[in-house]
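tokens incoming
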């Protein structure tokens, strides 16, 4: 009987749930900086999926969005951003480029244009460095709408920005006055 290859995407999504939102699902705890013990994570995930250290390493290395990081000694692992639970992933205050982008679904446009970008269930609003990446993010949720974010002016006005280990830009909120909707989803005005 042939052993089937593990479904890395399914395991990665489960890991994301655990490391960003619900570590209690497998009975583990994250420290104040979002780190989980690798052995505890493997033991917990193995109750649902076939996983070992090699599979975990492959998931971390092959994840195109670079969602996860190992500690220097590789005994701990954490999600780089996207948490809904209070953790400090040790982000460094970073000067943003003049413009960043946010991709979302058409059905959220009216709310965004009235209230700005809010973190919703997450700790931060996630912004993309280019409109193409923002469009990909928006397409995951429906017909995409892309917003140009006047990040440089926001920073000059006192807003803080951070850049996660995988290149996602983060800020607490983006008021509507700093947003400009890109009409065709990519062309800047």
């Amino acid at each position: 009987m042939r052993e089937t290859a593990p479904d890395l995407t399914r395991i990665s999504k489960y890991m994301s749930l655990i490391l960003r939102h619900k570590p209690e699902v497998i009975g583990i705890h994250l420290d104040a900086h979002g780190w989980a013990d690798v052995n505890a994570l493997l033991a917990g995930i193995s109750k649902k999926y076939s996983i070992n250290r090699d599979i975990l390493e492959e998931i971390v290395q092959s994840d195109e969005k670079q969602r996860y990081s190992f500690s220097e000694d590789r005994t701990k692992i954490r999600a780089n951003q996207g948490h809904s639970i209070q953790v400090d992933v040790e982000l460094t205050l970073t000067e943003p480029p003049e413009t960043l982008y946010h991709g979302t679904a058409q059905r959220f446009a009216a709310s965004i244009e009235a209230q700005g970008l809010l973190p919703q269930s997450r700790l931060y609003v996630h912004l993309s460095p280019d409109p193409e990446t923002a469009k990909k993010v928006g397409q995951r949720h429906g017909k995409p709408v892309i917003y140009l974010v006047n990040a440089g002016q926001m920073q000059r006005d006192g807003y803080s920005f951070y850049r996660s280990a995988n290149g996602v830009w983060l800020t607490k909120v983006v008021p509507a006055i700093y947003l400009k909707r890109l009409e065709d989803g990519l062309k800047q005005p």
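note: DSSP finds six helices and nine strands in the chain.
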